[in-house]
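To assess whether the prediction recovers the assembly geometry, we first specified each molecular entity separately, as shown.
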Amino acid sequence: MALAYDGAIQQLIDSFARLPGIGPKGAQRIAFYLLGADAQEVQDLADAITTAKAKVRFCEICGNVCETSPCPICEDPRRDRAVICVVEEPKDVMSIERTREYRGLYHVLGGAINPMANIGPSDLRIPNLLKRLKSGEVTEVIMALDPNIEGEATTTYLSRLLGPLEIKLTRLASGLPVGSDLEYADEITLGRALTGRSEV
Amino acid sequence: MALAYDGAIQQLIDSFARLPGIGPKGAQRIAFYLLGADAQEVQDLADAITTAKAKVRFCEICGNVCETSPCPICEDPRRDRAVICVVEEPKDVMSIERTREYRGLYHVLGGAINPMANIGPSDLRIPNLLKRLKSGEVTEVIMALDPNIEGEATTTYLSRLLGPLEIKLTRLASGLPVGSDLEYADEITLGRALTGRSEV
Ligand SMILES: [Zn+2]
Ligand SMILES: [Zn+2]
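The predicted structure of the complete assembly is given in tokenized form:
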């Protein structure tokens, strides 16, 4: 009795089941969808994966994902170089860009402090942030971390660390539902939180 | 202001967003997961996709997915060749195999009759089923379609079509929650439904 699929099918299912947010049933559905899909569509997916992995890097300045380092935002002469918005992940940069309320630069930490997951300050791009602030060009740092326990811990850590510097520290206005992920905030809510940001 | 990601990243997100069960947010999460993942893991996923698509075909007899046609089930001399279990999709074969209650063969229709989606009897592997039944070897056909409107319509259509033949027609016992997909039934429920199958 065959209790697993033939090798290549099972391997395809297993590969998708390892991705975040996809359970075993979802992986099976995707696998069968691909097996029945147009060959070109399937090849396009495989190519998109390898191409992105080959082309995409992290910006040496801000840590955002990009195809060229420094990234287009860091290189853009129209952006306000006196303000840096600190976020956890590259996707948060995109969320804030969508509000069209922000003209400064970014700094992507690559996560948040999370003792449960063994992520401490030294695992985040904090030294790079300090180095950027030492240039003296920056007058404000906006902390735009996720409004959850880890984000709050990171905001607290950063405000203590950056407090001695002569830089205005602000954070996104409350208004974001607590316990949620920044990426799920709609553009209007996030835009208002940005406009009404308060000093720490 | 960058309102879309750099080309390769956006293309990766879009490719995943096209897959069933993955929304735009889920696609973004997967894309960033892959961009941060080990290069080998990412290559393995791309390879699993292309390998499966290249290797996997549909069994010329039963329509199940397999790497060799006829498939291992159709070729297995220990299976009872007098019974054919008709299912909608290859994943349903796996669901029934997992019950360990069934020793016969399968016939995968490739879907169910669904006028709303423009899927009629001619879009399903029904002629191939009739051809298999004409050999005279088969004494029972078990209809194991999804217990929803489309599955019921297909069961009704098949019972009328196969009625004139000298073959016992059965269907899975009720007990499966109506309106659900067969693939979500747990193994015990599905096993009991199979054991207690009734004549149509
Ligand atoms: Zn940058
Ligand atoms: Zn077969």
